[in-house]
Records
---
Amino acid sequence: MRRKFQKWVESYQEDVWSLARYLLQDASEAEDETQEAFIKLWNQRKTIDPGRIKPWLLKVTRNACLDRLRRRRHITDVQTGDSHGPVAVAQRDEMGRWLKAAIADLEEPYRSLVVLRDVQQHSYEEVARITDLNMSQVKVYLHRARKQLREQLTEIRP
């Protein structure tokens, strides 16, 4: 069983970490959530269908990241009294940094959907399973998220 678990870690750790990194915008916190996801997998390894390991891991990671963001926002609100902190605008000539910032600025579930579908290239069916949304919701929300990203791009272009 340890060998099978090690194979799962090697196969899925990059996807799990990448999702956490995009959602949390902090490498250290992403590492923590990645480790926690694999600990949960180890504890649940006998009850999870082996064919559903990846969607299960991504769902657990997404939920843990959203919980962490809620706690972070609550702490920030208590400290500053402000519930809406601005996201730093990336420099115009650094599209990669801008895009990461723009994705981070999206509200949920838009942010998760863009990361899962457009960044990590999961199928629509996988995204629907991971996020507990139906296919119509996934498509509509992705359309709205992409529209918001296009609008943000238009705002920063000269």
---
Amino acid sequence: MTSDAVSPETWKRPAFGVLVVAWGANMFASVLQTYRGDLSQVQVTSLYGAYALGLIPALLIMAKVSDRLGRRLALTAGLVLSAAGTLLILASGSAFGGILAGRIIIGVSAGAALAPATAWIKELSDAAGFGASGARRAATALTGGFALGPLLSGIIVQWLPSPRPTAYLIHVALAVAGLFFLRGTPERTAVRVVPEELVDAGLRDLLTSRLFLGAIASTAPWVFGAATTSLAALPVLVSLGSYKPVGSGVIAALTLGTGILIQPLAQRLAQRSPALPFRVAMAAVVAGMLVAATAASTEWVPLLFVTALILGSAYGLLLVSGLKLVQAVAPPQHAAMATAVFYALTYVGFAAPVIIPALGGIWSPTVVLVGMAVLGALSLAATFVAWPRRVLELEYS
């Protein structure tokens, strides 16, 4: 770290940057309601998840850049690209191609920001003597942005004039503020020089380990698979009437807000066994998908809120537990890259809102959601073979 003292509050600067990038990524969950008269349902739902196309490659590239050139550069690039993507969407009106390009740029911004900022938050927490809180702080910042973006945007779309410009320009202003807060934030001034072949070998061993494959790779796609099913797929399947914009925002906020509030439970479960939060979360995925299937078949609106609570709990438990496990087993020189791989796996779940309507011509949404519950049960089973007894002794500290 730099010679500057790191105060207990310094971590909030990169955390605000993460919140802003996540805000820009997920505010579209509410704003997309304004495009339904101009674009097809498949186009609208595709636009929501399209930013994963830019996110996953950017995650893997910028994590390595961050490890070599510093966290500030990566997070700064993420904030600039986030604002640029939002401005492109605003300028595109209802043109599908322009909106798609903007969403992909926003995906690149998230890929540039998330893993480096998560590692930076952990490093600042360590330097201030609060290393055990690093994963929870990063998960809270990410989830807070995902929740507040659609909630505020839903209110704007529902009740304010010129909803698109208003919602988009608020995000741009937040991005500018985020850039200001990063000024002077301490970071590592020297990165350990490790031979490339050792870096690659160590990372490969980590990513092919029984623990990573069984506990992380099998459950990570359900982080956003659970969340986006609740906040993006179900509000399309179950009519919210004239309150669709603000209703979608409320569902998103409830899903992701639950994800924040449940995170302390992950810590308590992990104190009993590091496997337990993953298993409880995957049980919640199975239950949530079955409730979602019931909601889709009955179109009973109260079940949307029940689903949001269950799948939001699964999201929060899996996100914070996955980050904490990656930080516990990854050597420092692999921290950002291992976190990037975890995030990349989580974003596979953004396919859920596209898959459910896309398979509508073959099976009903109810059948698709029941099928997702079955897949969730298989992931739950994988967690029971992921931890040998010696790994269950792992302490999260």
---
Amino acid sequence: MPDPTTWTVAQLLDVVQRAISQALGGDVWIEGEITSISRPANGHVYLQLAQIDDPAADELPQLIPERVDARPRRAPRSTLSVVLLSRFRRQVNDQLLRTGGAVRMTEGVRVRIRGSVEVYGPRSEIQLRMTAIDPSYTLASLGLERDRVLRALADAGLLDLNGRLPVPFLPLRIAVLTSLGSAAHADFVDELARSGFGFEVSAFDVRVQGPHAAGTIVRAIERAAGHDLIAIVRGGGSRTDLAAFDDESLARAVAAAPTVIWSGVGHETDTTVIDHVAHTAFKTPTACAVGIVDAVRAGVDAFDRSWAAVEAAASAALDLAERRLARRVVGVSARSTGALDDAARRLQRRSLRVATAPLWRLDQADERLGAVAEQVRTRPERLLQSADASLAAIATTVRAYDPGRALERGWSITRRGDGRLARASDLRAGTVLHTLLVDGEVRSVVDATTTVAEP
């Protein structure tokens, strides 16, 4: 058998290129999602186009207000390198401009493009050399996806869930979710500052376009819990730029948030899915800030009206009290005048009694004083005579019981050594005795004792 033909790499790639060209017959239309895009200085545009299949409806998580999960990560089934050469770039841009700038080629955007399939020799890979784009496909795809999301939210009862939350009386603690440093951020903050109210603004930096925007906003909503109000704002842009705000996981997070969320995304003609689930939607970031200022002003006005009502009620109560006090003053004055007249008459009568009463009181006192003086003159003498008689009787009694008189009659007093009176029953032989006589004292020692029975 003949030896097989040996080809060079270039020959093989050339055969593959001719086979592709013959099979496709020229340019083809390709649809897919842009997963990456770059615009280097050489004027060309390089992008990766991928076929990404959405998970089946029964594979989507059942998102409820108590638990907000992101949709499952979608993995590309296949990818294709695309190059838009600079000579075709103006043509493609003209096609995009015919939509009024509604479509831009960015990551996460589904597109339908036209071009020729070629084998790129330096990397031995197939690529599409892009020459045209169908913007209507992208707009239709965005519209269909948006309608699907709105139906899912309506079926879950989430479209008015956040809208049922009460707006705080004075929403002064504001969390703004936006791209820091953007015009939307500056306009929003400046509008609040010009109001003169004491807003406390916490800014959360989030992505506002691209495939990762929805996730950053969802996480920021969780961190902003506890504020009076959350504002999600972004300036205008193409429909594809605002596609992140049509994301189902973001819409469910907004609906299920425990805090009132207001949206101000895009320009006057822009409407996104989160505008349908937010508590209140405004056309622009500035309009959203104005709405917050108006809510605070309404609260202040209500407070002023309440204070005015309190002031009016207090004034009316004071007027009524003053009228009642005036009537009571008249009554008190009349009663006081009558009381004073009665007191004056009683005082006059008492003054008359005071003027005459001292005379007879002095006469009575003089009589009592004379009787007391007589008693003072005579009573001491009688008391002294009675005392002398009592003293003489006591002296007689004392003399009768005087031990000296008994000693004079021949009696003696015998005591033991410890001073107690001596008794025969208490004495023993050898006991020392002391005997008191009328003219002296005798010391003796007991030789023997004899006791006499008591009669």
